[in-house]
Amino acid sequence: xxxxxxxxxxVDLYPGxxxxxxxxxxxxxxxxxxxGISRQGQTTGRRAWPFDFEAVKExxxxxxxxxxxxxxxxxxxxxxxxxxxxxxxxxxxxxxVSEILDPLCDISWQDVITSAVEDFWEVGNGFIExxxxxxxxxxxxxxxxxxxxxxxxxxxxxRHFEVLGETDYQAQKFARFGDLDSFRERFPEIENPSEIxxxxxxxxxxxxxxxxxxxxxxxxxxxxxxxHQYLYDFFINRGVPEFMLFLLGQKLDKExxxxxxxxxxxxxxKGKSHKSLAINLDNPEVKIQLEKLMADGKAxxxxxxxxxxxxxxxxxxxxxxxxxxxAGILIPGKLGATNELPNALMAFQAxxxxxxxxxxxxxxxxTLGRTELSGLNLSFKDFRMWTVxxxxxxxxxxxxxxxxxxxxxxxxxxxxxxxxxLD
Length: 423
Hints:
By secondary structure, this protein is α+β, with helices and mostly antiparallel strands.
């Protein structure tokens, strides 16, 4: 009796992503300062991340809405630039910050701060390397990837950073910004050490590392990955075979059988479905019997994908506190009214972006903005950032959304949309 073994092929849509516990909570500790050292104590040694930064980074590659939210929050935070004293006309112009810091960067200060703030939103921690020359003058500013940096706790109140190399992963010791003189005394063997400015997103979960606001959506992102994998497998014919072909009456020659199986295999894979097959057998004793095992259309799966995808998208966006419209989600009905975007922008700026801008401005103002530490002619006020609501006139946007005529027609009539709605 001949036996036929059906091999169901599968291609992993998201290879290399371990499905393990995403993050673990650590013991509580308190931030050390030079003003009144905490009596809670600290355990010396390398401080572990509160969750796996590298695993979290992979989410950007597997979920559209999560990636869009990270990009949107980064752009809304620092994408419009810094105000300074020169930039009085609005976002997009030159500021004192860019004028002074651009020469210290490989590309620009905007490039460095954007990369650091992207890490700030993605893993709750952004890092900037500060390089000084032999005279102590700042000569370089560089972005450091958050996945290569650990905080190393020494005896209270000292600590420094360990930075893994890009190739050999050998840890190098970097000082905290403003702690360079003390660091050199503790580690005299290190020549020309760099300093690090840590953009930490404040959180009560960990004393030393920041924490992102969206990690509650981790399960939803994983489920979304599984949903895409399920349908992806369908298109490469994985799971229940679509049909079983029986040739009854007589065993075919190996050459004929190989030709049939080769023709069937040609229909496996993306873009190869709905193919036709013609077989001409000159043996009248052979009968062909085809049994279909899979239902036609997969309409149920399509509806399931649509419903679950929409629900998961809203869950992910909610965790990010990003307006659905900014993530590419259109909500029908009253919630998706024409005035929804202006209202959402104001709430988004006030409750999500504004506090982050204040945090980052404070950190930069207390480091690069302190002349006695940086030697730069910058102040705290120079690091004020432009906001989305200053770039977009929400009143005008609301008027355009409520207008009963298209904007080009209104402008052609000479209407001033900034004056509000007509009576």
